[in-house]
Structure formats: C-alpha cells, structure tokens
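In keeping with the milestone schedule agreed at the kick-off meeting, the structural modelling team has produced records for the first pair of proteins. Each record is given below as a sequence line and a structure-token line. The laboratory manager (R.T.) confirmed that both were archived under the project's standard naming scheme.
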Amino acid sequence: MRRRFYPALLLVLFLVLAGCTMGVTRYGDLRGYVGIRVNPGIQSQEILLGEINPEDVVISSQAFDESEDNIMPLAGAKVYISGQKGYIPTEQDGIFRAYRLPVGWKTITIFHPDLRKEIIRNKLVQEGPNTLDDAIGGVGYYLVIGIEKYEYLPDAPGTVSDALSVVDVFENHTKLPGYVMDLTNRKATKENIEEAIKNIPGVTPDDYLVLYFAGRMGWDFLSPYNDNGMLDRDGVPYGAITDTELELWLREFPGDVTVILDGSESATFADGEETLPIRPLALQKPRYTVISSAGRDQNAHVIEGGHGLFTNYLVSGLSEPDERIKADRNRDGTITAHEIFEYVRMKMIGDVGEAQVPELYPERANTVILRY
C-alpha cells in the first residue's frame, strides 16, 4: 500500500508546484537608442547642392561616438510599445528605457516630426535585459529642375524663379530632414539630370525622392537645357528626356518617388487623356506618384511676374501658414500628394476654369510631400 501511496503523492505535489509557476508573469527590460546619422554630403562635379541636413534616423541599443560615426541623438522621439499605455520619450542622449515588460513579441513604433513616417519594428522581449537591434528610418531627397533659357529652344519665362521657390519650400518650410539639389538653365542638361538622379544615394525603401521639373515639355517628354528639338527616325525627340528614359533612371532608387511637372501638356508625359485621369505607363508602378500641371492640349498659364499658375499655388499651399492649413485637410501637420493636388486644382479652377486642369496619379495618392 505504501509503495502506491508515495508515487501518487509525489505526482500531486509536482502538479501543484507546476500550477503555481504557470501563473507567474515573467518580465524583461528594453533599452534602445534613437539617432540621426549626418552624411557629409552628396558629391557630383556638375550638381550644385543645397544645405546639408540630417540624412537617416538610426535606432540602436547604445549611443554612438558622434565624431566617429557621424550620428547625433534624436531627443524627444515617442516610443510606443504594444500592450503598454502611453509612450516613452527618448532623452537628450537619444536613449529610451522600458522596464517590466511582459515577455513575448512586441511591436515598437517610433514617431518624431523629423520622420516622414513611423518606424515600426517587432522585438521578442525575453526575461532580463533586452536591446533593440539597429534600424534605419528614411531620408528625403529633393531634385528641383527649372529651365528658362534654352540652348536651342525658345525660352520658358519664370521657370527658374518657380524652381527656386520650390527649393525654398523644401529647405525652409518642412520638418522632414533631407537634401535639396537644384539644377537650373545650363546646368540642367540631359546628362546632368541623369547623373543627378543616378547619384542620389537612397539605401532603404524608407528613403524617398521628390523630383520637380519646370520647363518646356511635350507629348511624353521633357526638354532639358540642351534639347535640340530634333526627332529620330521613329519621331521621338532626339535630345529630350522621354518617360521611358526617366523611369529607367529612377528605377534604381529603392523608395517612393514623386514627380511634379509644371509645363504645357505635362499630363501627356504620363499618358494623360483630356477627359480621363492620367494613366502613367512608364511610371505605372505602386511607388510612383505623378502630379502634372496641365492636361493634353492645355497650355501652362503664367501669372503676373512670370510665375506659373500651378507652381504659384503649389508653393503657397506648402509654405504660407494660412494656405497650408487649407491644404492640410485633416489638420494632421502632414500634407500628402492628394491634399496639395486638391488644393491647387480648386485654386486653378477658380482662376482659369477648365482651361488648365492639373492631374494626379494615382488618384488618391497619400504620399507625404511635407510636414510642418
């Protein structure tokens, strides 16, 4: 009888102890660093660069030697951890610390005004101390092209002034860190534009590019400074930049690309129809957004002072405080391609009716253009 009793008693004790431990919650701590990597610049012999701004956002488990790694802390970032209330701010040294997190997979979301979009990472928190692995947030590149004086073609008055106004928007009226490059007049040759695009050092899908062009253009082509106006045997402009060529230059860039065109018949560059929304062929990929200033058979209107009507409202909607609030329909401090397009479109309809109608592809593009 005793031989049967003791094994049974041991089994009961084991089950009781196991039941007690199964109900115990285990915890872990999490430590991370949020910083901005400062790139010494983009080098090109033919390109004039704007002011150097912070390039990337880096999340790591420890602070870096700034002088050695060109990384500066990003203070005031909001770190949200799934299952936890509120957020944890990063300190002046870029460090954040979270204590007593229940073990398991966590979604970590990091927001800061300098970020175009939130950084989201998944992390398995285990019992004891944990560190967040490195991650890189995106940086913006802005290539602004304006050609007023052509080598062979008639002039396009006001386009350089328009381009410089757009440069000012992206240098001085957005919180998003990035690089602004401009090519105007004789610097904006076909070769230099190709070189500029191919030399943009986007390294992650979170990086993004905004390309603005103001100048002469026609059916599916843009005219660089040295466009000679000649056609090849297939009727394609010999010295122009076709939509196919532009996409070929852009395709190596890893992130989203927004193309903004201000010129007569600019929608035709994306295969627009007079009565239909534009349908880009070469640029018909999910990561491309195209905003054009005029449809097929429509001229780009110029206002007093030589400025383009389209760019005049584009700039005001992105930079003037009162107008920017009107453009930002949901008042979230971020202006998307669709928001600025709708703002500009309504302004232009009020001025010239259906004589010049801007177009957008895709029609509900929510690509971020600016944050204020």
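The second protein of the pair:
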Amino acid sequence: MTESTASSATPQPSPAPPPPPPPPERREPRRGSMWSRLAATLITIILLASIAANLYLFTIVKVLTGGGEAVYAEGDAKHRIAILAIEGGINEGMHEFVHQSLKILDRDPPKALVLRINSPGGGVGASDRIYHEIKAFKDEHAVPVVASFGSVAASGGYYVAMAADHIVAEPTCITGSIGVIGQVLTFEKLLKDKLGIEPETFTATTSPDKDVANNLFRTWDERDEQVVTRIMDAAHARFVDVVVTGRAHVNAEAQIRDASQGQVYTTDEALATRLIDEQGYLEAAIMHAKTAAGIPTATDPQVTILRPGRSLTEMIGLRGQTAAAQQIDAQTIRTWLDELSAPRVEYLFTGPR
C-alpha cells in the first residue's frame, strides 16, 4: 500500500455544531400600556356594577312605590280576576292611575274586574272620568265588574262604583253621601281689619261677572253663592242620574232618588235603601266576580291587583323638604291665591270615618 493511499483512508474530523441561538431578549412591559389595561378593567367593573345597582334599585323602587299588575292570589292564569284598588282621595292623580291601569288590562283583559274602593271621594271631574273609563272598559271587553267597599266608599267613592254590576260592602263600611259640597276661603276681614290691607279687583267692562264667585279678597254675597249653588246643583243632578242608571237593576228608582240627598249610610242602612247588593269582604266580591264571569266552580282563578303606589319622595320622607326647597316668589304666591280663590266643588264626604 502506498503512502498516498494510507493517507487518504484516514477519517476526517466532523465539523463542530453551530452555537445555540442566544435567548430572546426579555422586554419589560411598557408602563403606559399596563396602566391603560388596568384602567379599562376598572372602568368595565364599575360599569357592570353600576348597571347591576341600577337594576336592583329599579326593582326595589317599583316594588315599594307600586305600579303594574301584581299577583294577589295564585291560581289559573287563564281565568284571571283583576282587582283595581281605588284608595284615598279621588283627584287627578287617582284618575291617571286608573287610566294607566286600564291600559295595562286592555292588553290582556281579565275574566272579571273587582273595584276595591276605600275612598271618601274627591273632585267632581276626576270622579266622573274614572266612572266613565271603567264603564267603557266593561262595555268594550264584556267583563263583569264588582265593587268591594272597604271602610268608606262615600260621595265620589260611591260615584265610581256605579260602573259596577254588583256592590259588596264590609259590615262597618260608611257609604252614600250622594251630594256635592263647595268650599272657598275669603280673607277680607283678616286683610282689612287685622292687617290694614284693602285689595282692589278690576274686571273688564264687558265681563262684569268675572269677579262673581271668584274673589277671595272680599266677603261673598248672595250673588256669589247663587253662582256656586247653580254649579253644585248641576253636579248633583249628574250624580243622581249616574246612581239611578248604575242601580237600575234593583228596580227602585224612587227609593234611590230619596237616598241621594247627601245622607250617609251604614252597610245595613245601605242594604235597606238598595244602594248596595250584599254585605261581605273582598273575598265575597271575588267569589261573586268568579260566578259572574262563568269560571268553573272547581277552578281557582288567579287574582291580580293594581294599586296606586307612593311616590319616591313620599316613600323616603322628602316631600316636606322638596316643598320647603321650592323657590317662592311673587308669581308663586299669586298662583296660590288664584287656586284659593276658586271654589272647590267636590263629591266629598267630610264626616267621621
């Protein structure tokens, strides 16, 4: 073997492996980016917490202040009876509550409607509008309406019940008072005799009667009283007509008219004079409504209730503070005086209850 051949057979050393790549450079997070993410997270948490708190507050306020239709007694929802609570004085606020409640019931009319009345009455116009709207609801949906009288259902409270087909009164109820009362304040003696103030009132020469029955700065005379009496007589005639129509099913018009001169009645007396149909509590009214609606005897209907709620300011006791905080200027005082000068003609029972 030659030297060249031996030399070529000698193994050659393998090349060294390449060095490992250097570790990636660790970058520190930018401080600005970290704070941005933290701020976004906090804002999201605050926003979600605010939404949850507002939903919770809305639910609590709705429960405490009323509004809407709530379940009074569980039962078959297909045979629902609704109670419409008319509680307290009858005024524009009460009319608005009844109006909105009937709009709610319009969407899904009940099988029967029970008017739970515990009211001494109130405004002539408000009483008449409530009566009109309940009667229109009854006629449109062909549902029986039953009135349930609580402690007092007098004057305007009795007026609105004339939309009902049947009246049930609690044993201790005070009812009737089918009459009209007018009240006005006059300050002539106080201003002139005590304070030495003598207001002057002017009217246009072409409207001399503008001052009649509309001036609290002077003592009223016979002419003023005649004007108010004429208005009250018209309101009372309307009241009696509504009662005669509402109680037509008892066939006792002469007796009803005799009982419609402002008298106040106990439940027993109201039964005797045919102003009501039955003595009983709310449960009796619901049972009568069930029968009148043709709901099967073996079926327990679902009973719901709509009742006026308190305002949030009343609920948390801020009404007085709100009134005290109101700015009182000359125009405010004039408005108050204008309201006082208008005689209040009302279907209102003012006796003990």
